[in-house]
Design brief:
Blueprint: H1 2-27, H2 32-43, E1 53-54, E2 57-58, H3 63-82, E3 86-88, H4 92-120, H5 136-162, E4 167-170, H6 175-193, H7 197-226, H8 240-265
Parallel strand pairs: 3-4
Antiparallel strand pairs: 1-2
Helix pairs in contact: 1-8, 2-7, 2-8, 3-5, 3-6, 3-7, 4-5, 5-6, 5-7, 7-8
Length: 274
C-alpha cells in the first residue's frame, strides 16, 4: 500500500507543481519584479512609506519584512554550511539572544503599528503614548534579528523531522557562531540602507527566496509527517518529492491569499488606509 502511495505521488506532485507555477505566473503582475510583488503581497501590508524603493518603485515587502526574510535566507544558508544535519535547538545562551531579538522585533512592531493607527485616525488611542517615532532603519534591523531566529529554529525542526541520522548538536552553539552571523547581517543591512539599486535588486529576490524557502520547509515537514516518513531520509535527493510538495503547497497558499486580498482591495498595492 505504501509503495503504491509513493508511486502515485511521484506523478501527482510534479503535475500539481506545474499547475501551481502556471497559475502563479498567470495571476501575478507582469515582469520579474511583478512576480516578486505577488509573493510580498501574500505576507506583507506593502505600505509605500514603510518600504525601500528602487528609484520610484517600491520593493515587494516593507522594510521590516525585507529585513526578516533576507536575514532568514542568509541565516539558513549560514547554519546549513556550519551544520547541515544539526537538529539541536540553539544553546541556552544563544537562545537568550534570539529570544531578545524576537522581543525587540515585537516591541518595535507594536510601537510602529500604534503610530500607524494614530497617523491614520486622528485622535485615536491618545492614552497610549509612542515611546519613539518608528523608522525604516529600525524596521530593517529588528526584522533581521527576527529572521535569524526563525531560520535557526526551523533548520533544527526540519532536520529533526527529516533525517534518519540527526546530529543533535545545535547549529548555533557558540558565541563565535552567532557573532559571525550577526556581523554578516549588520553588514548586509548597512548595504541595504544605502538604497543603492545595485544592492536592492538582489535583495528583492533574496527576500522573496527567503519567504518561499521558509514556507517550503514548513510545508515539507507537514508533508513528511502526514506521509509518515519521519526520520527516513539519508540525503536531500531522497526527499525531492517532499520538498516539491512543500513548495507546491507554499505556492498554493500564496496564490490563495493573493486572490482573496485582490478581491477585497482591488489593488496589488498596500492595504487601503483610512
Amino acid at each position: 500500500m505504501q509503495k503504491n502511495v509513493v508511486l502515485i505521488t511521484k506523478w501527482i506532485i510534479p503535475l500539481a507543481a506545474l499547475i501551481a507555477i502556471a497559475a502563479y505566473i498567470y495571476i501575478s503582475p507582469p515582469g520579474l519584479l511583478g512576480k516578486a510583488d505577488a509573493v510580498g503581497y501574500a505576507i506583507c501590508h506593502r505600505i509605500d512609506a514603510r518600504s525601500f524603493h528602487i528609484h520610484d518603485r517600491q520593493l515587494p515587502m516593507c522594510a521590516r519584512d525585507t529585513g526578516t526574510f533576507t536575514s532568514a535566507a542568509i541565516s539558513m544558508l549560514y547554519v546549513a554550511i556550519i551544520g547541515r544535519k544539526r537538529g539541536g535547538m540553539p544553546a541556552k545562551k544563544i537562545g537568550v539572544v534570539l529570544i531578545s531579538l524576537f522581543l525587540i522585533w515585537g516591541f518595535d512592531g507594536a510601537n510602529s503599528y500604534l503610530y500607524l493607527i494614530k497617523e491614520t485616525y486622528s485622535g485615536a488611542l491618545p492614552q497610549i503614548p509612542n515611546l519613539y517615532i518608528p523608522n525604516n532603519t529600525l524596521r530593517l534591523l529588528t526584522g533581521s534579528g527576527m529572521g535569524m531566529g526563525m531560520a535557526t529554529v526551523l533548520h533544527a525542526a526540519f532536520n529533526q523531522t527529516a533525517w534518519k541520522e540527526v546530529d543533535m548538536r545545535p547549529a548555533l552553539g557558540s558565541w563565535r557562531d552567532i557573532g559571525l552571523l550577526v556581523a554578516i547581517m549588520l553588514f548586509i543591512d548597512l548595504l541595504i540602507l544605502t538604497e543603492s539599486p545595485f544592492i536592492l535588486y538582489p535583495v528583492t529576490y533574496i527576500s522573496v527566496f527567503g519567504v518561499l524557502m521558509l514556507l517550503t520547509m514548513i510545508f515539507s515537514v507537514v508533508w513528511i509527517m502526514v506521509m509518515r516518513q519521519d526520520n527516513s531520509f539519508t540525503s536531500a535527493k531522497e526527499m525531492w518529492i517532499a520538498l516539491l510538495a512543500g513548495f507546491t503547497l507554499a505556492l498554493i497558499m500564496i496564490i490563495g491569499i493573493d486572490l482573496l486580498r485582490l478581491q477585497m482591495t482591488g489593488t496589488w498595492g498596500a492595504f487601503p488606509l483610512g
